[in-house]
Amino acid sequence: MEIKDCTAPSYERLRPMKATATPTFPVYPELAKTLLTTKKHPDTTVAHVMATCAGYAYSDPETVAMIMARMGLNDNHCQMIAQYVDVMFISSTAFLIQSHDGKVVILCYRGTPPMSLITWLTDLDVNPEKIAVSFPESPGTFEVHGGFYRNVRSTRYAIVAALKRALDGHSVREDGGAVAHPLEALYITGHSLGGAMASMMTMMLVTEPAYAPIVAKLRAVYSFGQAMIGTPALAEACNEVPFLHNNVIRYVYANDIVPQLPPTQSGAFAHFGQEYQYQTDGDGGYWHHNATPRGQLKKLLELLVNPISFLARQVQLTRNVTFNASVEDHLPHRYLAALTPAGVTSEYGN
Hints:
This protein is of the alpha/beta class. The protein has helices at 31-37, 44-56, 61-71, 117-124, 146-167, 193-207, 212-215, 232-239, 242-246, 300-314, 332-339, and strands at 2-7, 77-85, 90-98, 104-109, 128-133, 140-145, 185-191, 218-224, 248-253, 274-281, 284-290. It has one domain (2-339): 3-Layer(aba) Sandwich (Rossmann fold), CATH 3.40.50.1820. Strand 2 (77-85) and strand 3 (90-98) form a beta hairpin.
């Protein structure tokens, strides 16, 4: 288990070098208050912040802490919890970002680095694992994506320990000491594999009575480009739980291929929660709610050929190959650009 702690520098030291009469940072001066007081989800500001956090979760804790300070969580406490066991296809990395006063915590799972073979094998390791889930209306044994489940399980207890520290009015960092206030609002997020882990962890928290004090502070889950985590029976049971149905929010950019995985050849899988898809038009694009979630990829050939087509476009070998599912639409900067509200500066102050 690898655990790294850090504290973000003040955003006062993060401003651009150019002279300006108006401070560029933070992007959202009252971000902690917004995260505390927002009751209805999805929310455009929260979605932008979560997409930013999920995108930078591919970096290190110092970068995550810095970017979240720029967004508005000034002098935050940040902890990275990770477990890597290549032979077990485990590559699990999570960040806990806590507001300076302790009231807000974001749990963000890292996704699938494009050049990491082990994490891609984790995504593809769909052999189901049967787990007992204590749903209020339909407890039982359900099949889940084996790779996702093992990755969540490998870091779960360290994450829960950090969240319990926050509930007790302490820093999520093991050496952080006391903070001004105990945890009041928890958000969970992630992109790609990170999104799947976010949804898996949420299901485990919400259905386990021992985690009730943590769940009482959980406001919403925002995932981006998330794959399916279990069978249709699991998705149906999740949708019977009000929080899992209403407050687990999945964003799908255009024809992103990953929300359509695993393919039908791997068995039956399904999504739960609320789905929003980005559609492009002549004026740019817009997000709309899908009453029926994306289904599974039916043509396995698209999964095999799509990455080759993406690479070919990067070196301008071809520009005319199109698919109903796209690897290019999965990239985290697509989500971040589409979720940045009009007139709001970026995490780089422009």
